[in-house]
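Annex B, item 7. Sequence and structure tokens for protein A, then protein B.
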Amino acid sequence: MNVKKFMATSAVAIALSSAVFADEAYDVMKKFTSLPIPNYSKSEMNLDVIEKNGKVDHQVMMQYGNRKNGLTNTVFEFKTSATNKGTRVLQMEKTSKDDDRLIYLPQLKTTRRIPTSDRYKSFVGCEFTYNDMSIRDIDLDTHKMLNANESLTINGGTNGGKYGTEKYNCWKIDSTPATPQAKKMVEYSHKISYIDKNTYLPVKMEYFDKKDKDKLIKTYIIEKIEHVKGTTGKDYVLRKSCLISNELTGRKTRVWVSDFEWDAKIPDSYFTQNWLATGKTR
């Protein structure tokens, strides 16, 4: 084979290989976003805001969710909190427009809509954002496979965590907003996800600065995964404990589930502005 023919053949092979990896990356992310979701969910969730000096603000919130016609509605109600008690948040997924997010503020006794421009900001003062509380549409991003066999160790016992060390075999995938509009919806330039090959969960995600694409600003890890069943016997994968670390300030937030009940019917009245304002189902 002459040099020109060899170079042309090599170029085609590289192009085909890149396309295969791009398709594989997309398929992996698609499987993550398509994991089974219960039709109804009720969870008691604990939220610990951990300051750089180690001080912890412990809060307890209830989460209620339903899924109808492929769309998910979720509400959060803070039951125990020095700063957020009585605060309620409603998220309603939409198909042809932006999701609706509303928050009830007990101090002001008012409900306000969370504008799209604020949805990458802090969720009630912690390191999670409103975007973190839902799953992003994978078609908003382009996905690139960085490593199809990434070994990863997660230590779930750091910073007050109560779980041990877990080792994972992962796909390492870079996701970048595909359009200027998609970029405006998030607080980062791109993120790297480590998708566990057994569960298809992102056991680690790294978020990078909008101006400096090499500067890490936030890290998310799943400290504990549990395989659970709903009341109908259907199998699910539960993110038992998650930790987000702000790499710029040293502040961290842990969310962990202490109790849950999935697939037991929840009244539709929970997912209304009336419940948001009153906390009453009738």
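Protein B:
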Amino acid sequence: MKFSKWMKKSLIILISVLTFGMVTPSELHWLEEASADKNTNKKSAEESKSVHDGNDHSFTRYHGVTKDQFLLTMIEKAENTSYIKFGEKIAPKIQDEFKEVILPKMEEAISDVTASYDAEDLTELAISEKPAGGTGEKIFHIYNMKSGEDIIRFHVRRENPPQQGHWFNFHYHLRKDGYVKHHDLGKIYWDKNTPPKWGTGTLH
């Protein structure tokens, strides 16, 4: 709370009268300190937050973080967004293998792509938070907020080779090769039966 000068004076007079002068004006410096602390805490909370751009595209921006903190936050977000994409019908069956095999490779890919970025450059990067549902491939993209360009796209494709059942092919695309090449992250076997659509059910 920010006090105006006349409110401060009125409060000082009132407290002095009620306490018979036992509390002096110099002891009321806590008012200004409390106000300053509140403003500082508010600023810190806003340094890393989710926002929306003009296309109603959810993303998370990062400010004031080291490269290690950035990578850690990105991987945590990548894992959470992946589970949202899987949905409650697919996630329980593949999440352990995903975390053990695919996620470390995602981390390695993000680390490689952002290796040349300094801490200031990282503040321009954001991670999307809306994976594709149905049979769409998109898990999440990491992109530059200034240019709007994706720097890396993480996807998962459904495959059904003859007599081999259904598989999930995890891969990523890079801006530097026009998003054409598939950079392999690994495959996870589903079943002989067709898997449910992505995002089926809600994870709690």
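Comment on protein B: The beta strands are 48-52, 58-62, 125-128, 138-144, 150-159, 166-174, 183-191.
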